[in-house]
Design a protein that fits this description.
Layout (H helix, E strand, L loop, with lengths): L10 E8 L4 E6 L3 E4 L7 H4 L10 H13 L12
Parallel strand pairs: 1-3
Antiparallel strand pairs: 1-2
């Protein structure tokens, strides 16, 4: 028993419009798609991405790692009489 109208309508030539003005076609379930950022204006794809360690996360990680790998002193328990 196959149900009719189970899948959405597929548009093989859907238009994607970016805020930067770039347009391209893809296959989608909507005829028109509006996006804020695309491959033409995204910093990762344009090569303008800069990796910044603002919170010193790498240094914090290294200090935690060195503390964890350092041997812990053994506690001496006093015997009860």
């Amino acid at each position: 028993m196959a149900k009719k109208d189970l899948h959405p309508t597929y548009f093989p030539e859907a238009k994607v419009k970016c805020a930067c003005g770039n347009t391209f076609t893809v296959g989608a379930t909507k005829p028109d798609i509006y996006v804020e950022i695309c491959y033409k204006c995204h910093p990762f794809y344009t090569g303008e991405e800069k990796l910044i360690d603002t919170a010193g996360r790498l240094e914090k990680f290294k200090t935690r790692r060195s503390k964890a790998s350092a041997p812990k002193p053994k506690k001496v328990r006093a015997k009860k009489n």
